[in-house]
Amino acid sequence: MAEAEGAVVRSWAGGPLDRDVEAAIERLARGDDVRRIAVMPDVHLAADVCIGTVVATSHTLCPNAVGGDIGCGVAALAFDCEAGRLADERAAAAVLAGLYHSIPLNRHVRKRAPGLSPELAGRPLSSPALEALKSRDGVLQAGTLGRGNHFVELQSDPEGQLWLMLHSGSRGVGQAIRDHHLARCVVGRGGLRYLDATSGEGADYLRDLAWAVDYAEWSRRTMAVAVCEVVKEVLGCDPDEPSYVSGNHNHVRRETHEGEVLWVHRKGAISAAAGEPGLVPGSMGTHSFHVEGRGCAAALCSSAHGAGRRLSRTDARRRLSAKDVARELRGVFFDHRLAAGLREEAPSAYKDIDAVMRAEHQLVRVVRRLRPVLCFKGV
C-alpha cells in the first residue's frame, strides 16, 4: 500500500489489502505521534487498530494498538516420544479427557484454583478496582485457556516427534487493564486514543501492562505443566524441558530501530529480532511453524503471529457447517461434539498459513514445520 500522510507505512501483506483494512491503516497513520507502521501478512480488521499491525510512536502509548488480551501468546515444548502414539484413538481420547479435567476453559472452581505466584500476587496494579479484579478473576482464571482461537495442540514435527503448542492470554484482567487506561486517554486525530508515556498515567499503564504480560506467561507455563502431566500419565512420555519456548504477540515496549528510539506496539505480531525464536501457529487442521527472526528493520523486527482471519466470525458461522468442520479437520483428533460451535475456527475461516509464511520470508526463517495431531479448545 502507499505511504499515508504522517507515518511511514510498509506492508508484507503479500497482496492488496481489503478496503476496510486499508482504510483503517490509513486512518491510523494520521494519528498523533504515529511514526511508523508495519503491516503483517496475517493482518485483518479489528476495532480501532487492525490485528497484525505494528505501530511505532516516539512518546505516546496507544492501548488499542496492543489490544485487550495483553500478553497473549504461544508456547511450545517437545516430548521424548513419537507423535504416532496418538494414532491409537483410545490413547488420544484419554489425552483429550485428561485435558478437559486439568485445564478449565473459563475459570477454576475456587478450591481448585492454583492461585497466583507470590511474585505476581505481590505486585500491585494501579487502581483499587484492578487490584480487586486481580484478587478475584485473576486468581480464578490463572491457568485457564479461554475460548475463541486459544488452544492446546499436540503436533508432529517432520521427524515424527511429539510437540505441544499452546495459545493463551491474560484473560479478563488484561481486558480490564486496557479498558481502565483507555478511559484516561486523550482522543487524537483519527480517533486514536493515547497516553503520554512520560506522564503518571503512562507509567501506570506500563506497570499494569507488564503485570499482565507476566501473568499470561505464568499462566501458559502452568497449563504446559498440566499438559505434561496428562501426556505422562497416558503415554508415559516426558517433556524435553530445554525445548520450551514462549513469546507473546500483544505488547508495547521501548526499542531502537534504525537509530530511532521508539515505543513499538505489537497487536497480533511477534518480535522477530535477528536470531530470536518465535512461534507462528496456523489454524485447526493446518501446519504451524517454529521460526527464527531475521531482524528486518523495515518491519520493526516483527513477524506475523499466525494465519489471520479470512472470514469474520459472523461470516464463518453463516457460511460453514459442522460437516465442513469435520471434513476440514480430518486426521486431527478433536471433540466432534463441538463441531458446530467450532465453525468460527475452521481452517477455511483463516488465511492460507503457507501463503503467510511466503509473504514474510524477509522477516523470519522457518526452523520447523509441524502438523496437528490432537486439538483441544472450547466454544
List keywords for this structure.
30% helix, tRNA-splicing ligase RtcB, single chain, 379 residues, seven-stranded antiparallel beta sheet, 9 helices
How would you portray this structure in words?
This protein is of the alpha+beta class and 379 residues long. The protein has helices at residues 19-29, 89-102, 118-121, 128-141, 171-182, 200-235, 313-319, 322-328, 353-359, and strands at residues 8-11, 34-44, 51-57, 60-61, 73-82, 151-156, 161-168, 186-187, 193-196, 239-248, 250-257, 260-267, 269-271, 277-280, 288-293, 302-304, 364-376. The chain has one domain (8-310, 350-376): tRNA-splicing ligase RtcB, CATH 3.90.1860.10. The protein has nine helices and 17 strands. The two termini are 36 Å apart. The mean pLDDT is 95.
CATH domain class? Alpha Beta
Strand order within the widest sheet? 10-5-7-6-17-15-14
Structural class: alpha+beta
| CATH architecture assignment | Alpha-Beta Complex
Low-confidence stretches: none
Mean pLDDT over all positions: 95
Give helix % range.
25-40%
Number of extended strands: 17
What would CATH call the homologous superfamily?
tRNA-splicing ligase RtcB
Radius of gyration: 20 Å
Oligomeric status of the shown chains?
single chain
- Global outline: globular
Q: How much of the sequence is in beta strands?
A: 25-35%
Q: How many separate domains?
A: 1
SSE topology string: EHEEEEHHHEEHEEHEEEEEEEHHHE
Do you know the CATH topology?
A: tRNA-splicing ligase RtcB
The gist of it:
The protein is an alpha+beta fold and 379 residues long.
